[in-house]
Amino acid sequence: MSATNLNDGHTQRATTWLTPAVRAEFESEGWWTSQTWIDLVMKQVEAAPDKLAVIDETGSLTRGESMFGARRLAAYLYSRGIRPGDVVTLVLPNWREFVLVHTAIGLVGGVINPLLPKIQQSEMTHIMRTAGTTFVFAAAELRGSSPWQLACCAAEGIRSVKEVVPVRGGANSLEDILAHPWEDVVSLPEVRPDPSAWDTVSFTSGTESLPKGVVHSHQTTMFGLRSYIGEVLGLTANDCLFMPSPLCHASGLQWGLRASIYTGATLVIQDRWDAEKALQLIDRHACTFTLAATPFIVDMVGQRAVGRGAGSSLRYVASGGTAIPRHLVQDVREAFGAELMAVFGSSETYVSTATRPGSPDRMLASDGRALPGVQVLVVDETGAPVPTDVEGEIVSRGPQVFVGYLGDPDLTHRAFRGEWYRFGDLGRIDGDGMLHVTGRIKDIVIRGGENISVREVEELLMIHPDVDSVAVVGYPDPRLGERCCAMIVSARPDRVGLADLSEFLLANGLAKFKLPERVEVVEEMPMTATGKIRKAELRRRLLVEFS
């Protein structure tokens, strides 16, 4: 691996696993092409400008309306000095404006940097500085808070940031920009991004305390869409996609917005999760596909059972990010007449394995097999493949793998074994060639599809004066997959209750969704010979209660 500038004109350097030989292989096999998602947007506008591009809970945009606004916004961005390769940060909920801004960034050849609106200021500052953010679009107000004000504070002192634009309110807002004919003031050059250039840098938390920047190119993004949406599912412009997951998350962005671009289908988005409203949207717009975390699907099945929506238009319901209760395959079939299909991947690889439509239940009760063009292996500690049904480390090589982490070469080195990406997960491959994820090497808890770095929580808890030792581990939950439990050694157990620790963690800047939902005080931690806490033993103790 070598440190390279992964995007022409960009100021950040990153380490990439890609070599000229690997790139030549993927291009010669046809896995990587010259097509970009902005090419598809422009063709679709030309072909059917009046077709609905996106529907949210308060309105809609046709392809033509979205492109008109996007061109105007792109002219404004160009007038402010935004050029190909510049990173633009979006801190937006599932609003239709997201689609317009996304298109505008593509028109100037920029790089999308999506951030969840619930992110903390310290994390936002780290991300903007690491990414070299040049422009920010953020919700003016959202459920009692202001992501825009937070972004303004986070951007202070970061010289690369030219402007923080509020959306749906505020002075000098997106609405104000769109009210001015910038296309008459500024001559926007036709920019066609280099397919090998970045199109997205998303930040994901894992075992490290600080979020890490995952860089994808137009080629990795487009391959993921062709391989899963096109070849596996065969979705077309006649479908309608429902996306309740945030567009500022890899799942919502790739399998919602960009899947709608790839297919030409209308995208229906939901801002705040409500299972009854979700079914109403699906029924109203005859949605045929959705991809969501398991809790969303469980909730929709529950609402269907009490007659609050039909969901009968659904054909495919995909899920990943956390363990899927295997009975849910039958539940979805009975509730909606749809197929529930598992996907396995990460922000670094999009989808790497998936179950296929029409597969027998024994295969649906797995995490699927590798997508066309993707290699997935289970290996031992030396990197050698293990026999069928033997547990080992899951690794993948293919054109879906991200090109590198931004700003920290060591992260990229640690994430790969040669040309194979290491998920940090354990699994086995059965006699049908289907992957079964059995555990994790990485020390994270996945709560409802969201990664929680236990190290981050532990480091904050260790500041607490009455915490002598702490280990945060996951325990099973039928709806969310996992929840966090803080196992604590303390001489003052009366001062380390759940309410006390939650208040302490929130005061120290921890995001609310990362809070432990259970506290267990133990006399001592099980330790290894080298002095490390044996978390596997702590998990086994918790599992006894759920077996």
Structure, explained:
This protein has 547 residues and is α/β, with parallel strands linked by helices. Among the domains are: 35-53 and 60-218, Rossmann fold, CATH 3.40.50.980; 444-544, 2-Layer Sandwich (GMP Synthetase, Chain A, domain 3), CATH 3.30.300.30. It contains 18 helices and 28 strands. A 9-stranded mixed sheet has the order 4-3-12-11-13-14-15-16-17, sandwiched between helices. Strands 1-2-20-10-9 form a 5-stranded antiparallel sheet, sandwiched between helices. Helix 5 (121-131) crosses helix 6 (147-155), helix 9 (218-233) packs across helix 10 (250-263) and helix 11 packs across helix 12. The longest helix has 17 residues, at 63-79. Mean pLDDT is 92; it is low at 3-11.
CATH fold type of the domain at 35-53 and 60-218: Rossmann fold
Task: Report the sheet with the most strands, covering strand number, pairing sense and barrel closure.
Answer: 9 strands, mixed
- N-end to C-end Cα span: 45 Å
Give unreliable regions as ranges: 3-11
What's the pLDDT, averaged over the residues? 92
| Structural class computed from helices and strand pairing | alpha/beta
Quick one: CATH class of the domain at 35-53 and 60-218?
A: Alpha Beta
Helicity, in percent? 25-40%
Number of strands: 28
CATH-derived architecture of the domain at 35-53 and 60-218:
3-Layer(aba) Sandwich
> Helical region count?
18
Please list the strands of the largest sheet in the order they lie side by side. Answer: 4-3-12-11-13-14-15-16-17
Quote the beta fraction.
Answer: 25-35%
